[in-house]
Give the backbone structure.
Amino acid sequence: QVQLVESGGDLVQPGESLRLSCVVSGLPFSRYGMSWHRQAPGKEREMVATINSVTNNTWYPDSVRGRFTISRDNAKNTVYLQMNNLKPEDTAVYYCYVPYINHWGQGTQVTVSS
């Protein structure tokens, strides 16, 4: 059974940083591309970062490029999302996702507010 468990969400002030983690079990982690998505209240879920399984190439939308960094540690079956210079518009529930098998984690809340 595949499980994705996110952690690291918190309430922070604008300009601060957070690192989210997603521990994956139940599949050969190193073989799968991974992504992070977010969903704010009243808005559609959007992808904020993706990393592939072979070259570790990454991609970000303009809204977070230069502030967010996705990385993975295959030895720990974990994918990370480092978020710097957080803004109030980054407030959302953040989800870890395995695109190839369409499997989501339960989400972790990130709130950016002064």
